[in-house]
Amino acid sequence: MTGAALPPGPRLPRLAQTLRWIARPGPFLTDCRRRHGDTFTLRIASEGEWVILADPEDVKAVFTGDPAVLHAGEGNVILRPFLGRSSVLLLDDAPHLRQRKLMLPAFHGERMTRYGELMREVAERELASWPAATPLASLPRMQGVTLEIIVRAVFGVTDTARAARLQELLRAALEAAVDPRRMAALATLGPDRAERIGLFRRQIAPVDAAIAEEIARHRADPGLAERDDILALLLLARFEDGAAMTDTEVRDELMTLLIAGHETTATTLAWALERLGRHPGGWARLREEVAGGEDAYLDAVIKETLRIRPVIPIVVRMLKEDFALPGGRVVPAGAKLAPCIYLVHRREDVYGPDPLAFRPERFLAQAAGTYTWFPFGGGIRRCLGAAFAQFELRSVLAAVARHGGARTVGAPERVTRRAITLTPSRGGEVIAA
């Protein structure tokens, strides 16, 4: 395709752009959009060139485009040292479709309801431990909730001692993964060099051993077919040729569910508590509707939280060929197209004259658009666990409402970075109501 060229972007050196992206991604993206419009190029560390897309028509073109041209797996390669080479997030073309098709039944909507009682139980036990009239950071508390849910619903561990041991190992590995120094090293080195020098090997090895133990325990269970945890479902699943997933493939998918489903869901819950406490009448309305068995406002709160405080700011596709955007611009092969969740979610032409305000009511009046609200990505690469995550968000937030809600503390919290996620600067500080 002729005429392919990268759009303009900031003229800062790559290192300076990387530092701004790491330190304050939101203001950096907003400043670039003001200067360069809805389409601009960023140069970030070992990531090459990102072409940021903030126009919904461009987002639609990417999500509906040919996945053989738009490689999401290659776009996510920075995560390989944690997830492994078999993760569905890192695969493209036929291997991705093969793996995704096998995993889909584990996340069927009806199956999610089986985990509802577990989610409520874990949340209510956590909420009962919150001290009265004492400020606490909700993020680590919500991390504890989502991690226990993963250990019990995904790994199927119900024995108290084993569950506690696995949670501790997973927590230690996750904390190592979000260490700013290691993340900076990973961004600088790239995944290939990071793997060669074993940047995360010491932290991940104990988790790998524990996962291998749980896989072996499941395989030896004569009642495997009667289990309903996700690990059992993955072990029972078969590809079209009748083959089962290998232990390595199962390990990588379990790590994917952990990395993608634990930190992100916990962060969204912390943001929901931080935002809702600053919205007049929000908790009162939520308590009333939850008590009445309704969930419209609950869903609106979740959608608005994911809109104004998305945990991940962009999704990425590696171009295998030149790609024409709807306006006629042609982006060259080798660049990465990055539909920008952060910027699209703040468009005035979509969300009204005050798009930065937290206002759940907007989603009672308008549906979430496929290409204007995409916290879980989109197209064939939309997050497999989106239904699980949203069900968990509803279950836990409803439990908080039944518990009385929470009051916010101090000034509104800034967005700060925790590895690849965008979190509240004070950890979503609240006081139990």
Which structural traits does this protein have?
433 residues; alpha+beta; five-stranded mixed β-sheet; three-stranded antiparallel β-sheet
Describe the protein in words:
- The chain is 52% helix and 9% strand.
- The chain is an alpha+beta fold and 433 residues long.
- The strands form four sheets. It has a five-stranded mixed beta sheet with strand order 1-2-8-5-3.
- Strand 1 (39-43) and strand 2 form a beta hairpin.
- Helix 1 packs across helix 2 (25-36).
- The longest helix has 19 residues, at 201-219.
- The protein is globular, with a radius of gyration of 21 Å.
Helix content: 40-55%
Compute the separation of the termini in Å. Answer: 60 Å
Overall geometry: globular
Specify the structural class. alpha+beta
Please report the total strand number as a whole number.
12
Our Rg estimate from Cα atoms comes to 21 Å
Estimate what percentage of residues fall within beta strands: 5-15%
Average pLDDT reading: 92
Q: How would a textbook summarize the main sheet? A: 5 strands, mixed
Describe the strand arrangement of the main beta sheet, using strand numbers: 1-2-8-5-3
Give unreliable regions as ranges. Answer: none
Number of helices: 22
